[in-house]
Amino acid sequence: MTTTRGGGVLPDGPRHGPYWLRSITPGRYEPVSQERAVEILREWAAPVRDVPTALEAELQREVFGRLLAADAVHCLRALGEEATHDWGRVHDCFHEFVLIDRSAGQIALLVAADD
Q1: CA–CA dist 87, 19 (Å, integer)
Q2: 3-state secondary structure at position 45
Q3: What does residue 25 show for φ and ψ, rounded to 5 degrees?
Q4: What is the CA radius of gyration of the chain?
Q5: Is the CB of residue 63 less than 8 Å from the CB of residue 110?
Q6: What are the angstrom distances between the C-alpha of 75 and each of 10, 19, 23?
Q7: How far is the C-alpha of 37 from the C-alpha of 67, rounded, in Å?
Q8: Beta carbons of 31 and 74 less than 8 angstroms apart
Q9: Nearest-5° Cα angle at 84, 66 to 90
Q10: 66-108 confidence digits (pLDDT tens)
Q11: Would you say 54 and 86 are in contact if contact means Cβ atoms under 8 Å apart?
């Protein structure tokens, strides 16, 4: 017996995190302070215990350093049931940020997920 998982061969488009990609548009992002973004990411990285030293160093370099250098931070809002794809409920945690660093001429997409 063959089991098909998901919606088959892209009948409704690709998925991104818990959402159908077509549901993610620029208007679904909202400005958020650097402080709030750090708080969200700290809760994601260590909900119960301390972060191991090596991981903390990598988070500082790759995540928090970029976040604190950004001129603007935008967070993807929760999109609701209509945007959640057929496997989307397997995610307990999914956070997405767009970081804009004008002085460096960079835009970064930061995704923190439990998968």
Answers
A1: 9
A2: helix
A3: -125, 165
A4: 16
A5: yes
A6: 26, 15, 15
A7: 8
A8: yes
A9: 75
A10: 999 999 999 998 887 787 776 666 667 889 999 999 999 999 9
A11: no
Residue-wise pLDDT for 12-69, tens only, equals: 568 878 888 888 989 999 999 999 999 999 888 877 677 788 888 988 988 999 999 9
Residue by residue, DSSP assigns 57-102 as HHHIIIIIHHHHH-SEEEEEPP--GGGB-TTGGG-S-EEEEEEEET
Q: What angle do CA 78, 8, 98 make, to 5 degrees?
A: 30
d(CA 85, CA 6): 8
Sequence letter at residue 81: E
This prediction has a pTM of 0.79
Give the largest Cα separation in the chain, rounded.
57
What pLDDT score does 46 carry? 78
Q: Which residues contact 44 (CB under 8 A, 6 or more apart)?
A: 93, 95, 112
